[in-house]
Specification:
- This protein has one domain.
- It contains eight helices and no strands.
- The radius of gyration is 14 Å and the shape is globular.
- It is about 80% helix and about 0% strand.
- By secondary structure, it is mostly helical.
Length: about 150
Amino acid sequence: MNEQSELSDLASALLRGLQGPPKRNKDYARVAEYAATIFGMSVHDISPKSFHENVNDIMIFFKGFVKYCGSAVGLTDDECADAFEVFFVEITGLPHQDGAMTFSVLDRMAKTPEGIALIEAGQLAAYDCQEGNITKATAALGKALGI
């Protein structure tokens, strides 16, 4: 139980970089915040070295996670992409303009066969969350990356 509290604190710390939710749709911020919480729980046991070696793949995995969550609350595909950009900026702490440049690179990487597999793994993790299986969902990232 205490570990869950520590993980929530980690996710909260990751959210401090948020400069303000988009005004177009409040669900962007909700989806991004939820994904950031699961992100914090998922990367908690990944070594810093493995994290840095796999950071692009981790972000692509969470692109799928955000897409599933966004679709579940009625966001369109374009709105899910916007929600992922909000998530990405929150997690990295980059200014929106710098985040947008990196986001476009990740978007291209996500269209490769490896990227598509990571997106699907992220969507399955989000489904596990929806079903209440948080432990399985947070372990899915390491499984998808083979670490």
